[in-house]
Amino acid sequence: MKNWKNFLLIVLAMGLAFSLNAQEEPSWKQTLPRHDIQFGIGDPALLFLNNTDICIGCDYYPLQQNADSWFEDYVNTLTFAAPTINFEYRYRFAKWFWFGAATSFTPIINKWSKQEPGNEFTDHLYFISIMPSVRFSWLNKKYVTLYSGLSIGCMVVTGSKYLPEERATKQQTWANFTGQLTAVGVQVGKKWYGFTEVGVGVQGFVKAGFGYKFQSKEKKRE
Fold it and tell me: Pick the residue with more confidence: 124 or 221?
């Protein structure tokens, strides 16, 4: 009987020790950052394939349409697109779930000309997107985060076009739906980090950059 009492006392003591240890372990809200801000660049390749523009007060062709039907013997002699600039913010609502917003900016220049000298003009167009964004982080370590994500929103295209026949510059603006699907992304670093992502969308098939993760003071005291 005495042995059973000793055994029960040992079991109770071990249970109490495990309980105290579990209470001392911090939750993910205290150990993992809640805020994430990042800046990156991506390729603008998908913008050349976009054919779903909706003109808003636009009297002339969108960038991606065939120019032959509008300008006959005008041909595209030069197209320049700067890398897409991306800025994003997300807030962690759960250990694996983030929600926030993403914006991107891409300038594109198109030069059109005829065979005759002097008959040429240039498009200066600016692609601006704003998208609500979700992220699912499926590996959450101190220095490494792996994740996937989805952003869906609106893209506005605005810019100017010079028409040699009218000797005037015309403004144009149109908008359409756009998005970004991130298949795999990786962040490496504690607070300041570098990242790279592979996916498809207005932000690029591949994008990379840096970011900063931080914890609010209120959450640190939980």
Answer: 124
Q: Which residues of 166-196 are buried (b: 16+ CB within 10 A; e: fewer)?
A: eeeeeebebbbebbbebeebebebeeebebe
Would you say residue 91 has pLDDT above 70? yes
105-108 long-range contacts, CB within 8 A, separation 24+: 105/129, 106/44, 106/47, 106/81, 106/82, 106/202, 107/81, 107/82, 108/44, 108/47, 108/63, 108/79, 108/80, 108/81, 108/82
Average pLDDT for the chain: 76
Cα of 56 vs its chain's centroid, Å: 25
Q: Quick check: 209 and 16 in contact, CB under 8 A?
A: no
Instruction: Write out the two tokens for 11.
Output: 């079991």
Is residue 63 within 8 Å of 108, Cβ to Cβ? yes
